[in-house]
Design goal:
Shape: elongated
Strand order of the largest sheet: 1-2-3
Radius of gyration: 28 Å
Number of strands: 3
Oligomer: single chain
Length: 159
């Protein structure tokens, strides 16, 4: 071992030992998520409890968005890429978004709906929690000056 350590140019044995010690310490200390308490290694019940908890909480299955993805592939479906680039369309979208986000009665889903304005026609897409949210967002959009028509494609999420 000493012969192998002497073979590294510019690195004394003490420096190499120090660097290797830090590496091992870092690797050992990184086996837990931030903020997760480490059970006392002498507390067998705590260790067994943590193992049981991990076994009872498997990783959830990924969401299946296949139907929504198929719907969004429809060439007639508007996406944010269809947003009008003229100042009037951008201003309408901006004012609707500001009003929706400022509305404290709306859910986070409702605040994140797609708002697409093209030719002063507003298309609303995405999930909301209730028929009331769907109607409220449409009313906000219709109340913005310059809006010619609102195409309300919001979907009430039944989850």
């Amino acid at each position: 071992m000493a012969r192998a350590l002497r073979g590294l140019p510019g690195m004394s044995t003490a420096k190499l030992f120090f660097v290797m010690s830090l590496s091992v310490a870092a690797a050992v200390g990184c086996d837990r998520a931030e903020g997760t308490p480490r059970p006392d290694s002498n507390d067998t019940a705590a260790v067994q409890g943590e193992i049981a908890q991990r076994a009872n909480n498997p990783t959830p299955a990924a969401a299946d968005n296949t139907d929504k993805n198929d719907r969004d592939r429809d060439p007639a479906a508007l996406t944010p890429g269809d947003q009008g680039e003229n100042e009037a369309d951008r201003t309408i979208t901006q004012k609707i978004r500001q009003a929706v986000v400022a509305n404290d009665t709306l859910s986070m889903d409702a605040k994140n709906v797609k708002i697409i304005t093209n030719g002063q026609v507003v298309t609303l897409r995405g999930p909301v929690k209730s028929d009331k949210e769907k109607a409220d967002i449409a009313a906000i959009a219709q109340g913005i000056p310059g809006v010619q028509r609102v195409d309300n494609q919001l979907e009430v999420d039944v989850d």
